[in-house]
């Protein structure tokens, strides 16, 4: 291989390395949505301001902006339906959930209920990963159990496979 080919191959590799994976972009989007939903639960602020604040987060440039907005709007618009579905599978009142775990359950349940392009296992796994990062010590186990039941309820055919 001559020097020119080596340089070209290095250039290609560095471009490929710089391009973030879509799943990583969506994971960052979910993290930002979690922060926004959590903030909305604690401070009933205007959604426009919550979005502006999220855009100032240093991680925002790493996120999939369209997915962030779509997910946040979806969760915000379906809170009653999401909480009704979630509460069916809780061992306590929904008000007794930690706000972080409640927000994670809302986000992942939204993906399970309204975004069939995301496999149910991915939606559950992403919720569990958020719980590991932001939730309580064993919160991810609780999140996994509840989301597993939500998935079985809203996607019975996919869940059985």
Just name the CATH architecture. Answer: Orthogonal Bundle
Uncertain segments are: 1-17
CATH topology: N-utilizing Substance Protein B Homolog, Chain A
Radius of gyration: 18 Å
Sum up the overall morphology in one term. globular
DSSP summary, beta strand count? 0
If you had to describe this structure to a student in words, what would you say it looks like?
By secondary structure, this protein is mainly α. It has a single domain, classed as N-utilizing Substance Protein B Homolog, Chain A (Orthogonal Bundle). Helices cover 75% and strands 0% of the residues. It has helices spanning 3-18, 22-42, 47-55, 65-77, 79-87, 99-114, 120-134, 139-154, 156-160. The radius of gyration is 18 Å and the shape is globular. 32% of the residues are buried.
Short description:
This protein is mainly α and 161 residues long. The chain has nine helices and no strands. It has helices spanning 3-18, 22-42, 47-55, 65-77, 79-87, 99-114, 120-134, 139-154, 156-160.
Features:
mainly alpha; N-utilizing Substance Protein B Homolog, Chain A; about 160 residues; about 0% strand; about 75% helix; globular
